[in-house]
Write a structure and sequence with these properties.
This protein has about 180 residues and is α+β, with helices and mostly antiparallel strands. It has helices spanning about 25-45, 50-55, 70-80, 85-90, 120-125, 130-135, 135-145, 160-170, and strands at about 60-65, 95-100, 105-115, 155. The chain contains 8 helices and 4 strands, in the order ααβααββαααβα. Strand 2 (about 95-100) and strand 3 form a beta hairpin.
Length: about 180
């Protein structure tokens, strides 16, 4: 007497809740689609919060207008930045800070890169460890803001960056 034993195996494929016209090839496709959606959110304008993109890529850009009669004073202070301020900003996670002047105006643009994904306001704003680290840090920030027409820097919205959109276009963006 011969006995046959049959085993049935069922393989379930992970899905992300959306049926594609193209058949899915497994969990890798799910992650790929999730990544592609995230890239579109960031790079194609569906991510509307400029601070979210800035934090995600560890870079910020701000603009302000210096009071016209204070522009030379502002430049002089930055040419001779106080060591406590430079050290405090580095410790707060500021890797690069560059300021530009729009030619023929009192308009400034400040570009900042940070060491990783930090909350820039929390790291350098009112009540931050940076401002508490030395009295001259808080004094510097108050002094700089007193030179601005509006009293503050305004966050600009990043709309294009070659390291994101170009790499995505060329298929070089990491999965």
């Amino acid at each position: 007497m011969v006995h046959f034993i049959f085993y049935f195996f069922f393989f379930f494929q992970a899905e992300d809740g959306i049926r594609d016209a193209q058949e899915s090839r497994g969990l890798g496709d799910v992650y790929k689609r999730q990544y592609q959606r995230r890239v579109r959110e960031i790079c194609c304008g569906t991510m509307t919060d400029p601070m979210e993109r800035a934090q995600r890529f560890s870079r910020y850009c701000f603009t302000t207008k210096v009071k016209p009669d204070k522009l030379d004073e502002h430049k002089n202070y930055h040419d001779n930045i106080w060591p406590e301020v430079a050290g405090g900003l580095r410790k707060a996670g500021i890797k690069q800070l560059t300021t530009f002047q729009v030619p023929g105006t009192n308009q400034l643009v400040m570009y900042i890169e940070t060491d990783g994904r930090i909350d820039l306001g929390g790291a350098t704003g009112e009540g931050s460890e940076y401002r508490k680290s030395h009295p001259r840090c808080a004094e510097w920030e108050e002094l700089m803001c007193s030179l601005f027409e509006d009293g503050e820097w305004n966050l600009m919205q990043e709309i294009h960056s070659s390291d994101q959109e170009w790499n995505t276009s060329l298929g070089l963006a990491p999965p």
